[in-house]
Amino acid sequence: MQVIQVEDLWKRFKIPHERRTTILENIAGAFQILEGKRFTYEEFWALKAINFSVEYGESLGVIGENGSGKSTLLKVIANILRPSRGRVKANGKIAPILELGVGFHPELTAKENALIYGSIMGLKNSEVKKQMSSILQFSGLERFRDAKLKNLSSGMQMRLGFSVAIETDPDIFLVDEALAVGDMEFQQKCMEKFKEFKAEKKTIVLVSHALNLVKDFCEKTLFLSRGEMVAFGSTEDTVNEYVKSVRGSG
Amino acid sequence: MFEYSELVRNLTIKEFKLRYRNSVLGFFWSLLNPLAMMIILTVVFSTLLRSGIENFPVFLLTALLAWRFFSISTSMSLSSIIGNSPLVTKIYFPRWLLVLSSNLANLIGSSLEFAALFPLLVFLGMKITYLVLLLPVILILEFILIIGVSLILAPLNVYYRDFNQIWDITLQIGFFLCPIIYSISLIPQRYMLAYSLNPMTRIIEAVRKILYYYTLPTLADFIIVLVSGLILLLIGYLVFRRLEPRFAEEI
User: Fold this and answer.
1) For the segment B66-110, what is each residue's pLDDT rounded down to a tens digit?
2) Which of A10, A66, A213, B62 is the 20 to 30 Å CA partner of B15?
């Protein structure tokens, strides 16, 4: 059974030379009233002809230089961005841990944020409340349960996001470099959790520059460069190819 | 839909909390605002302009609360998606739930405002009749209208940020196009048909009939509000569905 299936995926972004965000600017642009300003778009293909699939029980590493389309790919899998062409299918509940943890609200407390994330993931408030102590314990935020999120450090925010996400019992984890801001102790704890997930046959999609991490957890790896698929296959082969290409150009 | 009922509840509570958390008087601000407006307008209209309307404070306040429900709900919904950009860019859930939650928070707020109105009505020498039971029906119909308008406004504001200002001006015009500070009897007969097709006029008149004139709103009042609400809901659904896919990119 395939957990994630990506068929001929293309993603285009429109980059305006002069960003138009008001109606006035759009009208002016249409008539080219504002002299010297040309309102044109440039097309930017962040992902081109991506094809791969992840089987049940497998995990996927995604590697490549900055701006190669790794995060865009994760957001398309998470259904946050829609494909311009092609198809993406994911079977199972997805927990995205993108950028700094999860999209929380800065004015709400750690506990309130956990409730909202939990309910987005389809958990009942009663379930989240039951797990609250283990969430706070795992994230090490017991003392800060009633602190507003904006007053927590970036590492603390990530820890909270991660801790809530693992309690929602998803089938697929999308992890985008999130662990990089955690301290060593927390990273260690996360590794333990990842091992548990692997044992439970859950899928982890890991975007990372830490190649040893990818080697430890992912059976398959995808190597992206400028939105194109350079290699896809066993982690060892793909990582070797990546290392070779970096050395070759450097 | 039902799988997200808990999320809608949490988002609604969040909206409500955030709105009043950082102020000392909290919810009372939302009561003080229409009260201050009532006092100012009563002074202006009963001493300076002499409207000649009996018990003008009640005449005004009943309409004002119905109007406030619409104007505050729709203008707050404008920021319901942009204001939640951390959620929208990081996790998927049906985006229209953000609009719904923003509107629900205002439904609660306005219901409380109406509840607070009753003691004041008694104080101002009015009586509360059984007609009051129709008030929730009117508010629900107004709520449908509000969701429809909000589903059009909120996504447009993601793409065009000056929609805020445009809607502000529209609401100011609307305030005077509806019979809030004047009586509907001032409208010349030849404009009457167009004037009375405005669903907000119907809502305001219906609330006023219940609380001020002690008469039953007409069937036409209900039908016009319901039909225009459903039409706007349909348009809102289509607009939202069309603009939703690129929210995360445009936000």
Assistant:
1) 999 999 999 999 999 999 988 898 889 999 999 999 999 999 989
2) B62
Of the partner residues A23, A98, A116, the one whose CB lies closest to the CB of residue B11: A116
Query: Band of the pLDDT at A103, cuts 50, 70, 90?
Result: low
Domain ranges across chain B: 2-250
Q: Which of A224-228, B22-26, B140-144 has the lowest mean pLDDT?
A: B22-26
A78 reaches B (C-beta below 8 A): yes
Residue of A13, A71, A81 for testing the chain B interface, max B β-carbons within 10 Å: A81
Report the relative pairing of strands A172-176 and A203-207 from DSSP bridges: parallel
- The ipTM of this complex is 0.87
Rounded to a whole number of angstroms, the distance from the CA of A206 to the nearest CA of chain B is 16
Higher pLDDT, B154 or B90: B154
- Tell me which CATH code domain A2-92+171-249 carries: 3.40.50.300
Task: Locate the chain A residue with the closest alpha carbon to B8.
Answer: A119
Which residues in A lie closer than 8 A to residue B163 (C-beta atoms)? 23
> Does the pLDDT at position A178 exceed 60?
yes
Give A5's strand partners.
A53, A89
Q: Strand order in A85-90's β-sheet? A: A85-90, A2-16, A41-55, A228-234, A220-225, A60-63, A203-207, A172-176, A94-97
Which token pair is A41?
């778009």
